[in-house]
Amino acid sequence: MRLLVIAPPDFAPLELLRRETPDLELIVGTEAEALRARGRRFDAVLIAPRFGGVLTELWPAVRNARWIHTLAAGVEFLPFDLLRRSDIVVTNGRGLYADALGEFAIAAMLWFAKDLRRLAVQQNEYRWAPYTVERLAGKTAGIIGYGGIGRAIGTRAAALGMHVIGVGRRQEPGEPAIDDVIPRADYLVLSVPLTPSTHRLLSRERIARMPPASVLINVGRGGTVDEAALVDALRTNAIRGAALDVFETEPLPPGHPLWELGNVLLSPHTADRTSDSHARATRFFLENLRRFRAGEPLENVVDKREQY
């Protein structure tokens, strides 16, 4: 079996992959031209986080593969217009990072509730200045995208005594809609994938409906938010603040206004990057690989029409 691995040669999980599958022929790299030179027959493709864009360049060489797996949860980089015309099964790392992202969301809420930025500044200035903090208990967490990540956030928020309102991708009769949740949320959390239907889901109009004391937390994808509108709302204190792990352009460009806003907590898309995250994702792939070779159904199959 020939497995194309779109990853740098020093990608740490490769050691685990080689140790667990010594019978596999691995073709590893990130340069499309060099990989094309290695042949045009691959049984499967494994994509490391942040290297998915190479797949489009390689399409003529991988179009006959039977399976593509991305270690990341996000799949917005995949060429779905091409994939939909093929029989290739696509799977991803959905759900593997939910616990870390749930913890980050709670950390972001505490950052604002306890005004931890003020504590850091006062400590640096050797300044003793008592102030009033707030409790999370009794506050409302509105979670848009109530899948694995959203539920992980909701479980942790509920454990702190918060009211949790989740909005899933398929709304059942009687359940709240996005526009019902936004004005009720003290902390509005986005954990949705980026698809044509979720692009700028949090529009300028929806940002305007957020309460002035509310905080936006985005652990999904940057493109789900109208970033320019968000900057305007933060600059004018139309909302209290934002904690962002994802952005429309990554890395966030130097000089971007988000860098300079004191009511923003920035994370360089590492809220789910724990010391074992890549290893966990690789072990999940290995189990799917076992299923693939045994002819069993794969886990985390991506809907190529819905694009998640």
Describe the structure.
With 308 residues, the chain is α/β, with parallel strands linked by helices. The chain folds into two domains: 2-96 and 275-294, Rossmann fold (3-Layer(aba) Sandwich); 98-266, Rossmann fold. Helices cover 32% and strands 15% of the residues. The protein contains twelve helices and eleven strands. It has helices spanning 13-20, 32-36, 54-57, 59-62, 80-83, 98-113, 116-124, 148-159, 178-181, 204-208, 227-235, 277-294, and strands spanning 2-6, 25-29, 44-47, 67-70, 89-91, 140-144, 163-167, 187-190, 215-218, 241-244, 264-266. The protein has a six-stranded parallel sheet with strand order 7-6-8-9-10-11, covered by helices on one side. A five-stranded parallel sheet has the order 2-1-3-4-5. The chain is elongated, with a radius of gyration of 21 Å.
Set down the secondary structure blueprint.
Layout: E1 2-6, H1 13-20, E2 25-29, H2 32-36, E3 44-47, H3 54-57, H4 59-62, E4 67-70, H5 80-83, E5 89-91, H6 98-113, H7 116-124, E6 140-144, H8 148-159, E7 163-167, H9 178-181, E8 187-190, H10 204-208, E9 215-218, H11 227-235, E10 241-244, E11 264-266, H12 277-294
Parallel strand pairs: 1-2, 1-3, 3-4, 4-5, 6-7, 6-8, 8-9, 9-10, 10-11
CATH homologous superfamily placement of the largest domain: NAD(P)-binding Rossmann-like Domain
The total strand number stands at: 11
Write out the strand line-up for the largest beta sheet, numbering strands in chain order. 7-6-8-9-10-11
| Average of the residue pLDDT scores | 96
The radius of gyration is 21 Å
Q: Based on CA inertia axes, which overall geometry fits?
A: elongated
How does the helix and strand content classify structurally? Answer: alpha/beta
User: Helix-strand pattern, N to C?
Assistant: EHEHEHHEHEHHEHEHEHEHEEH
Largest sheet: 6 strands, parallel
Give the C-level CATH assignment of the largest domain. Alpha Beta
What is the oligomeric state here?
single chain
Strand content: 5-15%
CATH hierarchy: architecture of the largest domain: 3-Layer(aba) Sandwich
Tally of distinct domains: 2
Specify the helix fraction band: 25-40%
CATH fold node name of the largest domain: Rossmann fold
State the low-pLDDT regions, or none: none
Number of alpha- plus pi-helical segments: 12
N-end to C-end Cα span: 27 Å
